[in-house]
Specification:
By secondary structure, this protein is mostly beta strands. Helices cover 10% and strands 50% of the residues. It has a 7-stranded antiparallel beta sheet, with helices on one face. Strand 5 and strand 6 form a beta hairpin.
């Protein structure tokens, strides 16, 4: 299986993003001062600049999910070890 990694990525994780009623499978990438979600369907990219994120946290019971709020929009990410990803994002400086 040929897997290409994002150049300069600190973390890559398979994830499903829920935005509104849509569930979109893709790759969650932490890269310096931004978070990128690259969807598998339609090859669309969602870019979240760390300075524009209003709120971020963990929610859910057994299966923890990471949420990111930008403006009035809330994005929910289901992935393995979501709490570890959240802790990594908190540990990173705001500007790299």
């Amino acid at each position: 299986m040929d897997r290409t990694y994002e150049r300069g990525a600190m973390l890559e994780r398979k994830a499903v993003m829920k935005h509104g009623r849509k569930k979109i499978p893709g790759t969650f990438i932490v890269k310096g001062d931004r978070i990128i979600f690259r969807s598998l369907i339609g090859r669309k990219e969602f870019i979240f600049h760390r300075t524009e994120i209003v709120d971020m946290g963990i929610e859910g019971g057994v299966r923890k999910k990471l949420y990111i709020v930008m403006g009035k929009q809330k994005y929910l990410f289901s992935m393995k070890n979501a709490r570890d990803v959240y802790n990594l994002l908190l540990a990173l400086p705001q500007h790299l």
